[in-house]
Structure to design on (471 residues):
C-alpha cells in the first residue's frame, strides 16, 4: 500500500496544556496565619521513582511484545525514562479520546495561586495531582507527535487548479502485506491507520510520514479480509470478507473476536462492514445481497433491511453509506440503478430514487458536511447530487457526472472538508481520479504517468486530508 500526501493538511497541533502549575500551589494555615501560608509544596508525585533512571529494559527478550516500542530495528535496550515515554505514546495512540478524564487547567497570573481552605481533618484527593496529570498528558502528546508533520488541524481552502501532492514513504513500509491491500482505513485521531487484505492479517501503523511504525499485527484465522473500518470512537476495528465469520478487534488489547454466524442466517461471506458515525449500528453487506443492521455495542442482529437475492445476477444490495449523523442509510437496490434511503431508528425505507449513471450502482458516498451524495456505477460514471434534493422525494437531477473512468467504480470517498471527491476502479490500471467540487472538474496534474498507482483496490483520506493513502 503506497502513501500519498495530498491537499493542505495544515494546522498546528495542541501544545498539551500547561502541566506544572498544580505543584506551585500552596495552602494557607487553618488559623489563617500569614507566617507559613506561603510555603510552596515541593513533594513529587508518588509514581516518580529515581530508580527508574537506572532501569534497563530488553525489549527483544523472549517473545516479548515490547519489540513494538522500537523506533529502529537495531534497538534492543531502552532506558527507564525512554521506556516510560514510549509506553505512554503507544497508549495515547491506541486509545480513544479520554477527555472525560481530563481535569480543568487552572491558568492564571504567573506566580503562586491560593487554594481554598480545607475543612478540619479533610484533604483534597484530586487537586494535588492536577499539575502532574497535565504535565504527563503534555509529555505523552509530545512523544507521540515527535517528528510528525502537523496534519491534524483544519486545512485552508484547496485550490481547484492543481492538486498539491507528493509521495511519502509507504504506509506499510514497516510491515508489508503478503497480498493485495484490499482495505485502508484511518483512525479518528488521524495518527493511526490500518491495512488488511487476503493474507488474513490486520496491521495497525502509527503514521508520521517517515517511519510509519507498526503498532499491532492481528491475525484473523479463516478470514480473507475484504473490508475493514474503525468504530467512531476509535476503540475497535471491524473486519469481514470471505468466510462465514466476521471480526471485532479490540485495539487496546490487540485481541480479535471472531463473531459466529448470525442466528437463522447461512452466509458464505460478507462484502462490506460499515459502522455508523454515531456509534449505534453496523451495516453488514452479505455476499448473498442481504443488508443486515446490527447493534454496534452487542453485535446482535437488529433488522434485515434487504433480503437475499442469490439467483439474480446483480440482485440484492450492492453498496451502503451512512449520512454524517448516522440517522439515514443509503443503499443500492439491485441491477436497475435503484437507491433506497432508510431511516435507521425506525428501520423503514423513506424514499427510493433512480441513479441514472449506469445499470448498477456500485458505490455510494456522502460528504461530511451533509451537502452532497455521490454514486459510482458499473459504467465508470460518478454522479454528484444534492442531498436535500435526494431526500425530498422524486427523481433528483445530477449536478455533475464525471466520466474519467471506463470500468466499474469500486472506491469512492469525499475528503474531510467536502472539497474533494476521489474515485477509483480496481479493474483497470491507474484508474483513479480526484475532483474539485467547487469547480466541478477533475485535477489534470494527478495522477501522472509516473505515479505508481497500478490497480487501486482501496483508498482513504486521513481525517484532516493531510494524507491520501491507497492500496
Amino acid at each position: 500500500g503506497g502513501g500519498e500526501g495530498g491537499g493542505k493538511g495544515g494546522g498546528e497541533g495542541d501544545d498539551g496544556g500547561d502541566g506544572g502549575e498544580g505543584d506551585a500551589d500552596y495552602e494557607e494555615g487553618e488559623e489563617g496565619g500569614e507566617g507559613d501560608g506561603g510555603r510552596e509544596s515541593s513533594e513529587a508525585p508518588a509514581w516518580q521513582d529515581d530508580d527508574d533512571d537506572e532501569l534497563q529494559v530488553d525489549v527483544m527478550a523472549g517473545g516479548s511484545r515490547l519489540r513494538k516500542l522500537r523506533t529502529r530495528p537495531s534497538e534492543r535496550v531502552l532506558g527507564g525514562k525512554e521506556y516510560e515515554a514510549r509506553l505512554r505514546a503507544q497508549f495515547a495512540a491506541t486509545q480513544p479520546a479520554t477527555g472525560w478524564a481530563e481535569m480543568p487547567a487552572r491558568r492564571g497570573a504567573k506566580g503562586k495561586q491560593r487554594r481554598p481552605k480545607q475543612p478540619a481533618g479533610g484533604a483534597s484527593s484530586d487537586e494535588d495531582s492536577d499539575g502532574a496529570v497535565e504535565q504527563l498528558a503534555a509529555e505523552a502528546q509530545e512523544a507521540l507527535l515527535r517528528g510528525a508533520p502537523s496534519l491534524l488541524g483544519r486545512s485552508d481552502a484547496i485550490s481547484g487548479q492543481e492538486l498539491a501532492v507528493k509521495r511519502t514513504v509507504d504506509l506499510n513500509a514497516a510491515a508489508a502485506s503478503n497480498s493485495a491491500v484490499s482495505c485502508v482505513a484511518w483512525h479518528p485521531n488521524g495518527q493511526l491507520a490500518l491495512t488488511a487484505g487476503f493474507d488474513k492479517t490486520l496491521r495497525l501503523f502509527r503514521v508520521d510520514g517517515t517511519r510509519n511504525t507498526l503498532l499491532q499485527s492481528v491475525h484473523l484465522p479463516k478470514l480473507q479480509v475484504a473490508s475493514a473500518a474503525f468504530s467512531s470512537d476509535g476503540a475497535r476495528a471491524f473486519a469481514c470478507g470471505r468466510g462465514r465469520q466476521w471480526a471485532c478487534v479490540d485495539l487496546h488489547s490487540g485481541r480479535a473476536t471472531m463473531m459466529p454466524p448470525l442466528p437463522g442466517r447461512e452466509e458464505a461471506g460478507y462484502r462490506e462492514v460499515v459502522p455508523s458515525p454515531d456509534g449505534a449500528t453496523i451495516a453488514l453487506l452479505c455476499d448473498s445481497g442481504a443488508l443486515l443492521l446490527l447493534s454496534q455495542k452487542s453485535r446482535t442482529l437488529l433488522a434485515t433491511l434487504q433480503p437475499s437475492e442469490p439467483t439474480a445476477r446483480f440482485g440484492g444490495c450492492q453498496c451502503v453509506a451512512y449520512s454524517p449523523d448516522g440517522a439515514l442509510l443509503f443503499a443500492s437496490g439491485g441491477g436497475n440503478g435503484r437507491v433506497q434511503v432508510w431511516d435507521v431508528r425506525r428501520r423503514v425505507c423513506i424514499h427510493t430514487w433512480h441513479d441514472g449513471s449506469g445499470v448498477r450502482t456500485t458505490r455510494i458516498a456522502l460528504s461530511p458536511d451533509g451537502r452532497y451524495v455521490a454514486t459510482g456505477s458499473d459504467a465508470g460514471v460518478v454522479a454528484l447530487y444534492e442531498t436535500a434534493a435526494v431526500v425530498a422525494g422524486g427523481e433528483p437531477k445530477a449536478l455533475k457526472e464525471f466520466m474519467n473512468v471506463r470500468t466499474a467504480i469500486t472506491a469512492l470517498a469525499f475528503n474531510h472538508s467536502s472539497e474533494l471527491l476521489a474515485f477509483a476502479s480496481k479493474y483497470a490500471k491507474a484508474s483513479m481520479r480526484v475532483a474539485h467540487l467547487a469547480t466541478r472538474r477533475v485535477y489534470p496534474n494527478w495522477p501522472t504517468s509516473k505515479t505508481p498507482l497500478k490497480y487501486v483496490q482501496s483508498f482513504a483520506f486521513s481525517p484532516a486530508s493531510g494524507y491520501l493513502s491507497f492500496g
